[in-house]
């Protein structure tokens, strides 16, 4: 395996109708001996409201490559923390293992890599009595796999970004900017 120093990817998978389970992970992949490894090691402490944890599929099932996940949203409730460390963590872990199985992540030299994943989990999920945990799993699983694949492929390429510069715009710019 040629050394992977610094690769980034992101993806968004939207929730089912009536759910707040959109997933928007951002992934950083790199060598344990490079800048990603240094950032990974530096994240082993905790920051109030933004829990950092190793990604595990279940008890005693730490994924490879070693991966730390943290939130983009401040944790305020036990219900939110339970979803993050439960369904979301499991979906993330399953996606990582499946990326290895499918060859998206290289199996050879896997212990020389590490990943950092920032997780979007809408605060409303922890309060939603009708939360569809299957949809929460689905969106996080699909988005994590897609973000990792994009990181490994270098997508979108600069040529794609240039080509769609006037046809794709951020959703927050609707009715603000016309191309």
From TrEMBL:
Molecular-function GO terms, alphabetical: carbon-nitrogen lyase activity
GO biological process: carbohydrate biosynthetic process
Listed InterPro entries: HCHO-activating_enzyme, HCHO-activating_enzyme_sf, Ribosomal_Su5_D2-typ_SF
Protein known as: Formaldehyde-activating enzyme
Keyword flag Lyase: yes
Organism lineage: Bacteria, Pseudomonadati, Pseudomonadota, Alphaproteobacteria, Hyphomicrobiales
Highest taxon of source: Bacteria
Organism: Methylorubrum populi
Lyase is among the record's keywords: yes
Pfam families named in the record: Fae
Keywords from the UniProt entry: Lyase
Name of the coding gene: fae
């Amino acid at each position: 395996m040629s050394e992977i120093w610094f690769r980034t990817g992101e993806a968004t998978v939207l929730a089912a109708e009536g759910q707040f389970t959109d997933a928007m992970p951002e992934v950083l992949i790199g060598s344990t001996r490079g800048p990603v490894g240094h950032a990974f090691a530096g994240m082993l402490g905790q920051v109030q409201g933004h829990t950092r944890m190793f990604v595990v599929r279940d008890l005693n099932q730490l994924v490879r490559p070693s991966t730390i996940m943290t939130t983009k949203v401040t944790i305020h409730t036990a219900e939110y923390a339970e979803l993050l460390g439960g369904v979301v963590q499991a979906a993330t872990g399953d996606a990582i293992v499946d990326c290895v199985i499918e060859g998206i992540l290289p199996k050879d030299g896997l212990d020389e890599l590490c990943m950092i994943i920032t997780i979007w989990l809408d605060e409303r999920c922890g309060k939603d009595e009708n939360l569809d945990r299957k949809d929460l799993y689905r969106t996080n699983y699909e988005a994590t796999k897609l973000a990792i694949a994009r990181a490994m492929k270098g997508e979108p390429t600069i040529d794609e970004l240039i080509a769609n510069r006037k046809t794709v715009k951020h959703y927050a710019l609707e009715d603000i900017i016309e191309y």
